[in-house]
Amino acid sequence: MSSLKDIRVSPLSRAYTFSDSVYEVIPYFAGHPLCFSRHIERLASSLQLSHISVDMDVITSELKQLGDELGNQDGYIYFQVSRGVDEIRAHLYADDLEAERFGYAFQTSVSVEPISGMLCEDNRWAHCNIKSTSLLGNVLSMNQARQQGCNEVIMHRAGNMTEAGASNVFYLNHQGIVRTSALTENILPGITRAILLEALTKSNIEVEEGECDIQDFNDAPAIWLTSSTKGMLPLTSLIGTTYFFEKNNLDYLRIKNIFNDAVELHLLAAK
User: What is the domain range of residue 54?
Assistant: First the structure.
């Protein structure tokens, strides 16, 4: 594999001219991937929905090679596939383009420090179930939030929560029920989201997936994010609401323990 500094991208790459590409992020803990096969399946789904043809066996092999670069360290793999390079910039792509592949491994640890967020309108395109590199809406909203001293946004459409800028969202309502948005074309099917939901179904904690009114945030004792790079991370506050995190809420602490145990079981299965 080439080093990042040796990679050259054509200005006519459709990833560059149209964001005509998809990507995947796989977390590793002590050198072991979390739900590797599920990430492969989601990448394959994004490729299929984008009509990008590529050999998944080759991609799987390259991802495993990148994972080996992490050794026994925590980190993640970023992997991107674009449709290819056009002879000239055009909305209509040629049928015989060769897909481009690009990825890297990065050593880091999942942060456990709670962060603050900002409520905002969801201005993204309507197919967020595809893990596309077309993330301008996310970028603009998250940098607006940064100007307010926040690290994330929670987006909504017509007053109903969709997801965060780079995460799925859960919260406890005032009745102690865990709530999260049902999967639609507007929401990415997060792997970490699925880990938590599957673990909660084995407990006696009530969970509801469906439309989530952003007014619920005002009296929610806990709102948290799930993603490959965040794990399960709570929000301390949410601009645009009166929410404040009850860090010692017993229901939240129990949910956090259930999640941590579920992650450990998945990692044991990967060894």
Answer: 4-107
